[in-house]
Amino acid sequence: MAARHPEGSRFASGAWLVVGVVGFAIAPLLAQRPETAADGFRELFIHDACVAENVQQPDTCLHERRHERAFVFGGKAGAVYDVTLRIRGLFEPTTMAGADAPDVAHPFFVSGGAGKTLDYSQWQIAVSEPARVYTLNHYPSVSHTIYKEDFEATIQVAAGAKVVVSVTDGNDRQIDNGAKGRPDRQQILEGVVDTPTPGQMLRLDVVRVTARR
Q1: Count of alpha carbons within 13 Å of 79, Cβ hemisphere only?
Q2: Any idea where the domains of the chain sit in the sequence?
């Protein structure tokens, strides 16, 4: 048995060398897969939490006026990607003027335009290239309502673009999902937040990523 050790050692070393070379060759290929470019979107969660009660309007609460998550999109230099996201949220309404609704089935998802009701929170995805701002909670009118949404939308993002996912409010009050006694409150996002939670929230998941060119 002792005479066979050197041969076994050489075989083992050679096998590990092959595995190491193959792994080294595959790693760059995995890094170039389109879906890895969108890693910044994966399981992205923003909770616009209540920071205090608003005694003047009990179905609202006080909150911080802006929350954001920013990242640089990956991918191959010069490429532009179609990124399909699953968008889930508990939002108050806002209204955008001059916006485009790319999907008639989901008219609350719009691109471009300008805010008409800046004292209601705007939930948005801003992409630096191609330059576009997508609003997730556009409705015909504002109200003290929590809208629960769960839908898919496709946006375009270039490799190296800066992406900012945010919620911005012009005042320090928000419609509170945690308020009781109204049919639109105490809602949950199944599999994300399974107990009624005060404030508002957004969850993004990547469905697919496809290179356009």
Answers
A1: 20
A2: 1-31, 35-211
